[in-house]
Amino acid sequence: MGSSLDTQKELGISKSKNLGYEYKVWNEGGQSSSKDDLENRPVLVDLLKEIDEGNVKHLFVFNTDRLSRNDLTWSVIRLKLVKNDVTLHTSQGVYPLSDPMNKLLLGILSEISSYDNQLRTERSRLGKLNRIKKGYWKGGPPPFGYKIKDKKLIENKDESKWVKFIFESYRDNHSARWIKQELLKNGVFTRRKNPVWSLGSIEKLLSNTQYSGYYHYTDKKSGETIRVQSPAILSPTLFKNVSDQRKKRTRQTRSGESNMKHFYLLRDYLRCGQCGSRYSGRHYERQKRSIYYCPRIERNYVNESTKKVKKCSNRRYLKIEETDKLIWNTVIDILTKSNLFKEEVKSQSMIGNSTHNDKKDDIRKLSRKLKEVDRDIGEVSNTIVNLETDRILKRRDSTELSQILTNVETYRVELESDREVIKDKLYHFESKKQWVDWISKFSDRIDKMSEFSLEEKHEFLNGVIDNILVSTLDTRTHEVIIKFKIPYVEDSIKWNDKSNKSKGYTVKDGGFEIGVEIDTSKKFVPK
Ligand SMILES: [Zn+2]
Question: How many domains would you assign to the chain?
Answer without folding.
Answer: 2
